[in-house]
Amino acid sequence: MQGTVQTAHASLMDQTYRHQRLIYDVTRKYYLFGRDRLIAEMVPRDGDHVLEVACGTGRNLQLAAQHYPRCQFYGLDISSQMLETARGKLEEKIQLAQADACNFDGEQLFGRPGFDRIFISYGVSMIPEWEAAIQHAYGQLAPGGELHIVDFSDQGGWPKMFQVGLNRWLAKFHVSPRRDLQAVLKQIAQSNSGSVHHRQLYRGYAQYGIVRRPG
């Protein structure tokens, strides 16, 4: 059953972004806020191995590699269409693979038993089993590693009309803001003796969470 769900989701993402991927980077800069902040704040050390889950067109990986040229970067996505765009954009030294966020094997895909940083930028709002994806990503961290997530929040500081309009628009792309992300991150941290930091961005338009695995 799980494999059927994953196949269906991969097909849905390919259908959604088969053409959208061609204009994705140009259009999303107007409402995917906080991505650059995440890249600036994850601060990997020289030599660290950094994975982006749901890497899409590779825009974030390209920018992160420019910020941290002495790190090794990896990306995975469930959509073959998105990866086609990413491969045309990124240098060969950034390894990419098609995989599901809920059950990928970093060692099998990239030869890495663990990653020093894993980040998910506006991905959990598109993953049906998003809690499982976050838990799985945490399990792929190396000791002392960090999982960074930025995504839509509840828009609590915005007028009701704005909230309704934004969520109707997001639904067209199968996006559902995860309003209980903070609670899920806290549960993962508490269950694994880790630590968590979460904050709202832009009056609740977006949220940024970090879970650290004990070193």
From TrEMBL:
One of its GO terms (molecular function) is demethylmenaquinone methyltransferase activity. The keyword Methyltransferase applies. InterPro entries: Methyltransf_25 (IPR041698), SAM-dependent_MTases_sf (IPR029063). The gene is ubiE_4. It is an enzyme of class 2 (transferase). Its EC number is 2.1.1.163. Residues 50-145 form the Methyltransferase domain. It comes from the Bacteria. It comes from Falsiruegeria litorea R37. The lineage of its organism: Bacteria, Pseudomonadati, Pseudomonadota, Alphaproteobacteria, Rhodobacterales. This is Demethylmenaquinone methyltransferase. Keywords: Methyltransferase, Transferase.
